[in-house]
C-alpha cells in the first residue's frame, strides 16, 4: 500500500450523536410556541370528554373512533366503513392544507404544531425545571454520579413517564367512551388490551420526546425530506442575513461597526436551537423553523443597540434584499385550487349522505335457476343500511322486470313489504327474484327500498340473468 494512502484516516460513516442542551430564551417566537403548546395539548387532552347528543342508543362522545361498531364520529359527522371515501377526502384535505401552508409560511407545522415538537418542548421544559438551564444540565449529565444527580435525573424521568402515560391514556380515550374508561381505571378494571396499548404508547412517547427528540425530525420524519419540493424563493423561512451579518467577529463596547458585519459571533442562536444547528450556515433540513434563534439574536441586538432581524422570518428573496415575499404565486394558487376542490367534494359527500342505503350482490354460482314452472330465479345478497338511531321497517321492490316475485329466505318470518333493520346497523337478507324468461340474457333491474316511517327511499342497480 502506498505510504500516502496508509496514513490517510478512514472516512467516518457514523458519528456519535452529541446531546443537545437547548438554552432558555424569551421573545416573540418563544411566546408563540408556548401558546401553540397550550392550545394543542389542551385540545388533545380535553376533546375526548366533550359530549355530543346523537339521540338514544348512539354514543354521545363528540370525537370517537368506535372500532367494535366500525364507526367514526366527529361532532355532527358520522362515518360508516362504506363512507371511507369521506375520511380519505378529509386526509387529502389535511395533506394539501399542509402543503399550502408550507409553501406560504415554511415549516410552521414542524416548529409549532407537530406532536413530536410539542411533546419534546414539554419534556425539555420539565428537564429545565428540575435540572436547570443549559450549563447546569450539561454539567449534571457529564459529571460524576452524586446524590443530587441521582434525584434530579430520577425526578425528571418520573415526570416524563407520568406525562407519557397521560398522553397514551388520552389517546386510548379517542377509541372508547372516555368517562366509562376513566371510571374503569379508578376501579382498576381495565382490559389487558387497553393496558397493553397504553404501555406501548407510554414507552414510545417517553422514548421519542425524552431521548430521540430532534433525531426524529432529522432522520425519521419523511415530511422533512420532501417538503423542500414545496419551497421556492418566496417561501418564508428562518434565515440569517449574510449581507448584514458578515464579516462576523467578537465586538467590544465602543468598537466601531465600520467594515464589519453585525454578527458578534456570540453563538446565542446556536445555544437555543433545539436541533443544535447553526443557522448562519444557511438553510438546513434540520431547521424546524421554531424561531427561537430569532428571539436569541433579537435579544443580543437589543443589548448591543443594533436593529433586530439579523436572523429573521423572511423569504430567500427578502434575506437577499431582492424583494419582499409574494404570497400569490403559481404554486400557492395551485394548492388553493386543489384545496377548494377537495373541500367542495367533501362537502358534497357530506351533503348528499343518505341515512338509508341498499347494497345488492348477485349470486355467482348458480347465476340462475330454471324452476319446474318454467320461470327463472336469481338469488341476491341484499344489505340494508340503517344509519339512523331508530329501528326502521322497509319495503323492498324491484323495477324494470315484468311481474317479479320476491321471496326472502325464511319466508313467513320476512315479507318484502316489511323488512326490519335495527337502529344504526346493517341487515343482511337473502333475496330470490323469479320471473318469466326475459328476451335478453341479462336485464338491468333496480332494487328499491322505502323507509315505511319516513318515505325515504334508496335504490341500487343489479341484473337479472335469464340464460
Ligand atoms: S435554526 Fe433556529 S429556527 Fe431552525 S430549529 Fe434552530 S432555533 Fe429553530
Ligand atoms: S445570536 Fe446573532 S449575533 Fe449572536 S452569533 Fe447568532 S447571529 Fe451572530
Protein model, in words:
It is built from 16 helices and 14 strands. With 467 residues, it is of the alpha+beta class. The chain starts with a helix and ends with a strand. It folds into three domains: 28-228, no CATH class; 237-319, no CATH class; 356-465, Immunoglobulin-like. Strands 6, 7, 8, 10 and 12 form a five-stranded antiparallel β-sheet that branches. A four-stranded antiparallel β-sheet has the order 11-9-13-14, with no helix packed on it. A three-stranded antiparallel β-sheet has the order 1-2-3, covered by helices on one side. The chain has helices spanning 3-7, 28-46, 84-105, 108-113, 115-131, 134-142, 147-173, 178-186, 192-212, 214-220, 222-226, 242-245, 268-271, 292-304, 316-319, 330-351, and strands at residues 63-66, 71-74, 77-79, 236-240, 311-315, 356-362, 369-370, 376-386, 392-399, 405-408, 419-421, 425-435, 442-451, 457-465. Helix 3 packs antiparallel against helix 16, helix 5 runs antiparallel to helix 7 and helix 5 (115-131) crosses helix 9. 42% of the residues lie in helices and 18% in strands. The structure holds iron/sulfur cluster (SF4) (2 copies). One iron/sulfur cluster is lined by residues 238, 272-275, 277, 279, 287-293.
